[in-house]
């Protein structure tokens, strides 16, 4: 008995719930003699990983589903020992090179080399290559991305790479052009609702369509989150009612309350309180850019058009600076301070 | 264990089907880009003067240091590889050292690898007795991504080893190469390829691969989407062929990661903030790339008929700023919102 | 955060280059022998006569000359001053004294070792080894000395921490004999035992004698003793008599504690032993050049044997950056490194260590690590005892911690407290003592204060203050934590302006770190100074020391580690990226882990309830969560979730969704069952697989079994096992392989072995198998470990 999100994960390309055309194409891709490197990208919870696992199953049969976790060790040129978690089957290995920060290049080069150098002895009826799955490629350092590009060419006979990214904006063109890019758009709310209904049916539950729609709306087109929310609803109250509370991640609520705090009063004292909240968010590991985006979305709601543009422009500018810097809290607080200053002026002027 | 595996690998690479276990192992199909790379310099499309000069150099058997620059996919690497093959024939492997950006090219490599290679003397006679040029060729592909320190280290080597070694540097932006090096090389600019030539070449390839391209409309589209970059066009065609089994315009858009035109026009005609928010969210959820959008947007804005010059200026400036921030790793949603705001303001105040 | 190296890594990265440089420099040294052949000291020290007797015994009791020397601990360095000028000087000025000649005669090779260790008499070799050591070679003596010193030191540490029970274990061990005279001329002890112990002894409680009476030292008494003590060292001190003549006798009482309690012998040193040893060894290498006697340099490959023998240090004489196979001595018999450079924060004992060295030379870099506060506290307690300062050990350790390894500062504080004439020192005194903390910590606060205060005089003054304070990061943090309160700023214009400078600072600083390019470094103080011009005020402001950032960092690390452990603990089938785990799964998981149960007793649960309980248990297994029984302070047992995902999921209001204790217990039980179930499943899967292969080999008649086997085969082993089977059919004998416990060994393993051997015989292609479900603990065993 696992979570729904794991239990009802489709295992077969043909059983995927949406993007069926793409699934067909992928299936025909597998049947060709050659299999290119893939770059699969799409927002979180769109089903990239599910599709890749289906693809592997299609390539290798169910042996690719027997997974195990291992820790691999690498040594950097500066003799620092690093270790990284891998998930692998007999046919593929999956890593998150970003886990090791700036040493990701070493991991990529060594790992791919390692895999590429172990051949399948018997390739009759089987693929003569193994698959290396790299997660979060867009967060790799430029160095690692360049290394990747060379590796892709070098070991093309014995291994294929499947790269997973949230967006290809930050993947260097050289890699993009060496891969077959596969875009996985997030499921629409209707698609999510359908999936929720199907899952509930399998579980023998009846989901009111209104509740399903509400969950889908709350989930930001993230199917993983939608399924978890749905199951959480079930754990809290069953039978479902169409107006029951949908639990959502607390950090989202927290960002909203922070925004409300900012709007409630604009003063240095309030800014100090907001800082504590921002710190909390950072501590809980909410990525700073999501904090920015969340704040922006909430803050501009009461503004007029000119001010909205102004705030959005500041947000973009400050967020960019934050990427270059080292201390997210400075930049977020600077944005809040700026917003407070603008907003206060706006309110005072509108009162006059 | 590792050594164990390694030896296994090497011997396997040398004689792939020595064991009965494996039936004759076919080479994976080469990318079309490699498969149809020009074999001689005469096959190079559309670079008249450069080829002329190269041909004369080859005829004389001598070669200056070369610096090729120009937009990607115009045949720079192909030209020097073809020239090398014509110069050295079957001993190309021994005489040519090719390094590109993905190889290690720090100052240490320049010092060790390139220097040692450059210092070796070579005879002017091939093993089979025929004459050949008495020098070696070092090709530094994508030289603009070399560090300045590495370039500086190179310059000394270039000067000292002229007798035995010729260098060929290839880059997109000649301004990224330090002046001492450019002054030591003969510079050749590769122009963007003429449209009809690209299409002709693509047609040839498609014919050779037995791919049906119908009237050739899709080829025009391929060239358009790839902005005259032959390599990108070929890669796109191949990917499309692989994924769909045929070449269609939608397929091309899909494999090249292009943003459909209707989305760009929608973005350009946004009138208020709520629309913008919705658009941005939807755009990102559909997993389109913001930087791609900016690229296409910039072209669209410039050629747009219904925007005033002032609007074009304002929007283009913001596009430039935003794509810079995106390159630095800025969040897509922020930059698109920012740009969208500018567009709204521009739309509302023509 | 992790985009670019942290300082340590940066250092590593840069280090390679430095090493190279260093080696190049070494090479240069090799080729250009330094002309220092005519060492002035060499001539004067060039004696070949054996040691007739200890010089101390020959020196007359010239206490009046010597006892006022405030810092006799410095004698070592003076003894190793270029002796030539010193001697000539003494010859002319003190010609009447015969000490000099005696010294000259008695200065021998042996002496150098004593010099190095300071007064080695304080170690117990006079009753252990002294008679025999004369016959030994000098090298052996040195080694013995070192060993003894180490031993003495060890004992002293034991004494300082009596809890170790070292003394109890060694009943015959004479504690007194091993005491060293580091502190104080404790009169009674000195008188009582001056014959036995050459002068130095701790007034230390571990010596069974009550220290109190001894500490009642009259000044005259002390002076006398001083004189006696000085005698023992007069060979060192005699040189000082010429230089320090002008000192008055009463300077003795007014000298600083820092001087008075300065370590006077090698074993008193608090600095890191390997460092001391390394320096000592290096100094020893000079013997050949200086004293014309052969120095046994260890062959490069044997260099570490000593350290192995003592079992004490790994570093023995490995200098940082020293080449492994480089001989230690150049062709002229001098050490390769001519210069030793000691560096480290103030008060860690550089000077003291240096005073144990001659000024023969300097270019090795030895970093002296901070003194651990435990050691420091032990020493402070000794000092306190001697000064009749009653002080709680807890206070002392607080003081030691506060001093951050700076014994000098700690002694100053102690002295200050004593001067306030308080017999009892409590912890508040230490906390409130403004003196004694390291000056840099203070200057940060001072600089911050200056930053927030208007200066009318010099507009550039603030910039100087900032630059003097250094540590711009701390300053920026200080500004960040205080800027909201210092000025009234209702429109938040000041706040936005300040933040814009802080942002700029952060950007520049990150750029510098990322590119390792310090050309913009001078911009940083200007950013800080700009903040001053925005924020400075005339009102007195109360500033807080910046700690928030560190606190937040600590908390973040804590939560990160929870996420990390969930991520590591989750099974492979649910493995996902960490961001997805953090943003999607963990925040919603707690809702799923609190099933609604009407009653805690699982037997009474309805079917749906049981199902939800099972789901919960399954999820916990998947994500590696566990309820662990823990004892609460009230003495009750409570089930605590481990790792505590609630902390990550919620922002402070997590308790509302935590299941009640009874439910937790039910879940914990259910989870244990689930674990067993899963294990069974895995076992059965393995055995069914072996059965299926059996079916393939022995062709059973039963149809049902056949189909079952085929089903299993289709389900479980569609890949390489299928392919390997035909080969295995001929190879494998039909009987089932069993392991040690009598379980059926999965056929996968058996076949794998066969397949591998088969492949080895037929081809050169190897397959790296990482298959199999073996419960055995796998670890690498080297062949040589087996022999």
Structural class of chain C: mainly alpha
CATH architecture of the largest domain in chain A: 3-Layer(aba) Sandwich
* Helix residue percentage of chain C: 55-70%
Radius of gyration of chain C: 37 Å
Tell me the greatest interface: A-C, 91 and 96 residues
Task: Report strand % of chain C.
Answer: under 5%
Unreliable stretches of chain C: 28-134, 163-218, 233-251, 298-324, 358-365, 435-441, 695-736, 747-763
Instruction: Please give the order of strands in the largest beta sheet of chain C.
Output: 1-2
Identify the strand order in the major beta sheet of chain A.
Answer: 2-3-4-5-6-1-7
N-to-C order of helices and strands of chain A: HHEHEEEHEHEHEHHHHHHHH
As for the number of domains of chain A, it is 3
Gross morphology of chain A is: globular
Discrete helix count of chain C: 39
Uncertain segments of chain A are: none
- Could you give the count of β-strands of chain A? 7
Pfam family, one (chain B): AAA
Region (Disordered) (chain B): 1-32
Main location (chain B): nucleus
Domain AAA+ ATPase (chain B): 62-196
Commentary on this structure:
The complex is a heterotrimer of chains A (352), B (350) and C (787). Chain A has a seven-stranded mixed sheet, sandwiched between helices. Chain A has helices at 4-7, 20-31, 48-60, 104-117, 142-154, 173-176, 189-202, 209-218, 223-236, 250-264, 268-283, 288-299, 305-324, 328-351; strands at residues 38-41, 68-75, 81-88, 92-95, 130-134, 159-165, 180-183. Helices cover 53% and strands 11% of the residues of chain A. A five-stranded parallel sheet of chain B has the order 2-3-4-1-5. In chain B, helix 10 packs across helix 11 (230-244) and helix 10 runs parallel beside helix 12. Mean pLDDT of chain B is 79; it is low at 1-26. Helix content of chain C is 55%, strand content 3%. Classes of the chains: A alpha/beta (352), B alpha/beta (350), C mainly alpha (787). Chains in contact: A-B, A-C, B-C. Chains A and C meet through strand 2, strand 3, helix 9, helix 10 and helix 11 of A and helix 1, helix 28, helix 29, helix 31 and helix 32 of C. Chain C: It is found in: Nucleus. Chain C: Residues 166-179, 209-235 have a biased composition (Basic and acidic residues). Chain C: GO terms for molecular function: ATP binding; ATP hydrolysis activity; DNA binding.
């Amino acid at each position: 008995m696992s979570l729904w999100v794991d239990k009802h994960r489709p295992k077969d390309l043909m059983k995927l719930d949406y993007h069926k055309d793409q699934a067909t194409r992928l299936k025909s891709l597998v049947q060709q003699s050659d299999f290119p490197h893939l770059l699969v990208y799409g927002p979180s919870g769109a089903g990239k990983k599910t599709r890749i696992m289906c693809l592997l199953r299609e390539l290798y049969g169910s042996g690719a589903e027997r997974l195990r976790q291992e820790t691999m060790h690498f040594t950097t040129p500066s003799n620092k020992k690093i270790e990284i978690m891998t998930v692998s089957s007999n046919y593929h290995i999956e890593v998150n090179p970003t886990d090791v920060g700036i040493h990701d290049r070493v991991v990529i080069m060594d790992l791919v080399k390692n895999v590429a150098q172990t051949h399948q002895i018997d390739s009759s009826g089987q693929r003569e290559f193994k698959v290396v799955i790299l997660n979060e490629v867009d967060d790799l350092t430029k160095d690692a991305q360049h290394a990747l590009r060379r590796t892709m060419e070098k070991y093309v006979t014995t291994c294929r790479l499947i790269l997973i990214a949230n967006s290809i904006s930050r993947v260097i063109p050289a890699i993009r052009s060496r891969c077959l890019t596969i875009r996985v758009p997030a499921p629409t709310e209707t698609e999510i609702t359908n999936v929720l209904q199907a899952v509930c049916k399998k579980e023998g539950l009846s989901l009111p369509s209104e509740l399903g729609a509400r969950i889908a709306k709350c989930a930001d087109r993230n199917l993983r989150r939608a399924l978890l929310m749905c199951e959480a609803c079930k754990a809290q109250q069953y039978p479902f009612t169409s107006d029951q509370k949908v639990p959502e991640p607390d950090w989202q609520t927290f960002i909203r309350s922070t925004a409300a705090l900012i709007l409630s009063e604009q003063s240095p004292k309030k800014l100090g309180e907001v800082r504590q909240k921002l710190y909390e968010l950072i501590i809980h590991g909410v990525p700073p850019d999501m904090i920015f985006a969340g704040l922006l979305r909430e803050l501009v709601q009461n503004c007029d058009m000119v001010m909205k543009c102004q705030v959005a422009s500041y947000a973009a500018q400050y967020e960019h600076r934050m990427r270059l810097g080292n201390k997210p809290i400075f930049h977020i607080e600077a944005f809040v301070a700026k917003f407070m200053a603008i907003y206060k002026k706006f309110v005072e002027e509108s009162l006059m | 264990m590792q050594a164990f595996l390694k030896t296994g690998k090497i011997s396997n690479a040398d004689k792939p089907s020595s064991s009965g276990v494996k039936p004759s192992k076919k080479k994976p199909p080469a990318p079309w880009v490699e498969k149809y790379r020009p074999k001689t310099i005469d096959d190079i499309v559309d670079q008249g003067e450069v080829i002329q000069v190269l041909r004369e150099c080859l005829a004389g058997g001598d070669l200056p240091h070369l610096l090729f620059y120009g937009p990607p996919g115009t045949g720079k690497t192909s030209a020097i590889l073809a020239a090398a093959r014509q110069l050295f024939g079957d001993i190309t492997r021994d005489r040519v050292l090719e390094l590109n950006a993905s190889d290690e090219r720090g100052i240490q490599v320049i010092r060790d690898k390139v220097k040692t290679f450059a210092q070796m003397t070579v005879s002017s006679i091939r093993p089979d007795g025929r004459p050949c040029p008495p020098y070696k060729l070092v090709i530094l592909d994508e030289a603009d991504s070399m560090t300045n320190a590495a370039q500086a280290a190179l310059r000394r080597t270039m000067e000292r080893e002229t007798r035995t070694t010729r260098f060929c540097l290839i880059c997109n932006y000649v301004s990224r190469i330090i002046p001492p090096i450019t002054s030591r090389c003969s510079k050749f600019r590769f122009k963007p390829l003429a449209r009809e030539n690209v299409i002709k070449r693509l047609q040839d390839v498609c014919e050779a691969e037995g791919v049906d391209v119908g009237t050739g409309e899709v080829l025009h589209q391929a060239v358009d989407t790839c902005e005259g970059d032959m390599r990108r066009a070929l890669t796109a065609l191949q990917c499309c062929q692989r994924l769909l089994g045929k070449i269609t315009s939608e397929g091309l858009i899909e494999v090249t990661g292009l943003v459909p035109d209707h989305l760009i026009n929608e973005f350009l005609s946004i009138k208020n903030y709520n629309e913008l928010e919705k658009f941005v969210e939807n755009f990102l959820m559909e997993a389109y790339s913001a930087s791609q959008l900016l690229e296409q947007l910039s072209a669209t804005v410039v050629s747009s008929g219904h925007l005033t010059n002032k609007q074009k200026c304002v929007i283009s400036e913001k596009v430039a700023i935003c794509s810079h921030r995106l390159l630095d790793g800025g969040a897509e949603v922020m930059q698109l919102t920012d740009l969208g705001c500018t567009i709204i303001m521009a739309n509302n105040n023509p | 955060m992790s985009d670019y190296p942290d300082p340590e890594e940066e250092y590593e990265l840069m280090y390679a280059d430095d090493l190279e440089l260093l080696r190049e420099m070494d090479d240069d040294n090799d080729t250009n022998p330094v002309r220092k052949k005519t060492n002035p000291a060499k001539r004067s020290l060039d004696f070949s006569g054996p040691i007739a007797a200890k010089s101390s015994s020959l020196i007359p009791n010239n206490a009046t000359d010597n006892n006022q020397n405030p810092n006799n601990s410095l004698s070592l360095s003076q003894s190793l001053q270029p002796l030539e000028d010193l001697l000539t000087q003494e010859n002319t000025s003190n010609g009447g004294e015969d000490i000099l000649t005696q010294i000259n005669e008695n200065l021998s090779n042996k002496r150098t070792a004593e010099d190095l260790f300071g007064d080695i008499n304080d170690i117990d070799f006079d009753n252990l080894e002294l008679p025999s050591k004369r016959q030994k070679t000098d090298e052996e003596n040195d080694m013995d000395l070192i060993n003894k010193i180490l031993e003495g030191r060890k004992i002293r540490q034991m004494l300082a921490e009596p809890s170790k029970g070292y003394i109890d274990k060694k009943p015959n061990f004479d504690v007194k004999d091993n005491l060293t005279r580091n502190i104080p001329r404790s009169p009674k002890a000195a008188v009582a035992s001056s014959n036995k112990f050459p002068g130095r002894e701790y007034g230390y409680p571990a010596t069974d004698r009550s220290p109190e009476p001894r500490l009642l030292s009259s000044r005259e008494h002390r002076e006398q003793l001083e004189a006696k003590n000085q005698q023992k060292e007069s060979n060192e001190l005699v040189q000082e008599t010429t230089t320090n003549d002008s000192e008055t006798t009463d300077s003795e009482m007014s000298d600083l504690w820092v001087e008075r309690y300065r370590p006077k012998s090698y074993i008193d040193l608090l600095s890191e032993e390997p460092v001391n040893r390394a320096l000592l060894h290096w100094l020893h290498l000079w013997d050949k050049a200086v004293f014309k006697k052969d120095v046994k340099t260890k062959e490069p490959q044997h260099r570490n044997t000593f350290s192995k023998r003592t079992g004490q240090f790994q570093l023995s004489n490995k200098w940082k950056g020293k080449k492994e196979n480089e001989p230690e001595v150049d062709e002229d018999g001098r050490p390769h490194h001519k210069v030793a450079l000691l560096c480290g924060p103030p008060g860690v004992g550089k000077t003291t260590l240096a005073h144990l060295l001659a000024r023969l030379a300097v270019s090795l870099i030895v970093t002296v690590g901070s003194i651990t506060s435990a050691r420091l506290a032990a020493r402070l307690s000794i000092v306190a005892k001697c000064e009749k300062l009653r002080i709680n050990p807890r206070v002392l350790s607080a003081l030691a911690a506060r001093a951050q390894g700076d014994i000098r500062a700690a002694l100053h504080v102690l002295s200050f407290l004593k001067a306030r004439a308080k017999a009892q020192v409590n912890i508040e005194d230490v906390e409130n003592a403004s003196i004694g903390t390291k000056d840099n910590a203070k200057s940060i606060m001072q600089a911050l204060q200056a930053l927030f205060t208007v200066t009318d005089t010099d507009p550039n003054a603030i910039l100087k203050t900032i630059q003097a304070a250094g540590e711009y990061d701390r300053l920026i943090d200080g500004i960040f934590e205080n800027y909201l309160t210092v000025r009234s700023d209702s429109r938040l214009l000041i706040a936005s302006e300040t933040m814009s400078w802080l942002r700029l600072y952060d950007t520049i600083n990150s750029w510098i770190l990322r590119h390792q390019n310090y050309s913009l470094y001078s911009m940083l103080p200007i950013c800080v100074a700009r903040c001053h011009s925005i924020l400075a005020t005339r009102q007195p402001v109360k500033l807080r020391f910046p700690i928030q950032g560190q606190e937040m960092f600590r908390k973040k690390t804590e939560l990160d580690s929870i996420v990390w452990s969930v991520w590591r603990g989750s099974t492979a089938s649910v493995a996902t990226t960490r961001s997805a785990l953090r943003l999607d799964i963990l925040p919603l998981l707690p809702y799923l882990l609190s099933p609604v149960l009407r009653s805690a007793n699982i037997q009474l649960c309805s079917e749906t309830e049981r199902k939800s309980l099972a789901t919960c248990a399954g999820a916990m297994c998947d994500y590696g969560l566990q309820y662990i029984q823990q004892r609460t302070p009230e003495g009750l047992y409570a089930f605590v979730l481990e790792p505590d995902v609630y902390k990550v999921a919620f922002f402070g209001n997590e308790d509302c969704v935590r299941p009640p204790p009874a439910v937790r217990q039910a879940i914990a039980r259910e989870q244990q069952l689930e674990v067993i179930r899963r294990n069974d499943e895995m076992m059965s899967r393995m055995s069914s697989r072996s059965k299926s292969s059996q079916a393939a080999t022995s062709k059973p008649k039963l149809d049902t079994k056949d189909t079952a086997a085929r089903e299993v085969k289709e389900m479980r082993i569609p890949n390489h096992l299928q392919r390997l089977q035909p080969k295995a059919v001929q190879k494998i004998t039909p009987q089932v392989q069993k392991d040690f416990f009598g379980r059926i060994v999965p056929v996968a393993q058996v076949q794998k072995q066969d397949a591998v051997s088969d492949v080895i015989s037929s081809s050169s292609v190897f397959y790296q198998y990482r298959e199999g479900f073996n419960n055995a603990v796998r670890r690498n065993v080297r062949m040589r470990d087996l022999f």
